Amino acid sequence: MNARLTTLAAAVLLLAADPAPSPSPSPTAAPLALPSVPPGIGGALESLIQKVTGDVIAPFGVNPNHVRGTVTFFRRFDLQIEMPLQTYKQIHLHQGTIINPRGATLAPGQQVDVRGRVQPDGSIEADEITIL
Fold first, then answer.
1. What number of H helices and E strands is found in the chain?
2. Which of these, 48, 127, 56, lies nearest to 91 by C-alpha position?
3. Complete DSSP assignment for 38-62
4. pLDDT of residue 116
5. How far apart are CA 79 and CA 113, in angstroms?
6. Cα–Cα distance, 63 to 98 (Å, whole number)
7. What is the pLDDT of residue 5?
8. DSSP one-letter string for 52-97
9. Could you state, in order of their start, the residue ranges of all structural domains in the chain?
10. Separation in Å, CA 22 to CA 18, 25, 91, 97
11. pTM of this structure
């Protein structure tokens, strides 16, 4: 009986064993190189990306030196604009403030893009105002 059990166990093990070893996996190809920006274009591309992202976030006042909104008040050197979410920003003009298009006059209701320097009180000393 022991001999039969041993023979049966050996037969099961032989049938269950893989007759040929499986081949090792074939080597994979080298990973593809990522595309790169040609030399000389990187600076222009970077400035374009900064311009586009600046235009997207300007209405929300994320960058305190660049805001966009609707003129609600304008008198000589004082300007107030309404930005999204019903927030208002005081803008101060000076003798060197550039208004684009040149020679245009600001009026309530106009959409403007303002670039300048933020002041301690949160207002902006405008260097350039563009009417959109």
1. 2, 6
2. 127
3. PTTTHHHHHHHHHHHHHHHHGGGT-
4. 92
5. 12
6. 20
7. 65
8. HHHHHHGGGT-STTEEEEEEEEEETTEEEEEEGGGEEEEEE--TT-
9. 65-131
10. 9, 9, 76, 78
11. 0.54
For 65-131, CATH number out of 2.40.50.140, 3.30.70.100, 3.90.1150.10, 3.40.430.10 equals: 2.40.50.140
Residue 57 has what pLDDT?
62
Instruction: List the pLDDT tens digit at each of the 132 positions of the chain.
Output: 567 667 766 666 666 555 666 666 666 666 777 777 667 776 777 777 777 666 666 656 566 788 889 999 998 889 999 988 888 889 999 998 888 888 888 899 999 999 999 888 888 999 999 998
Please give the structure tokens belonging to residue 76: 């000589």
Q: If we measure between CA atoms, which residue out of 98, 76, 82, 88 comes closest to residue 122? A: 88
Nearest partner of 99 among 72, 118, 121, 77, judged by Cα: 77
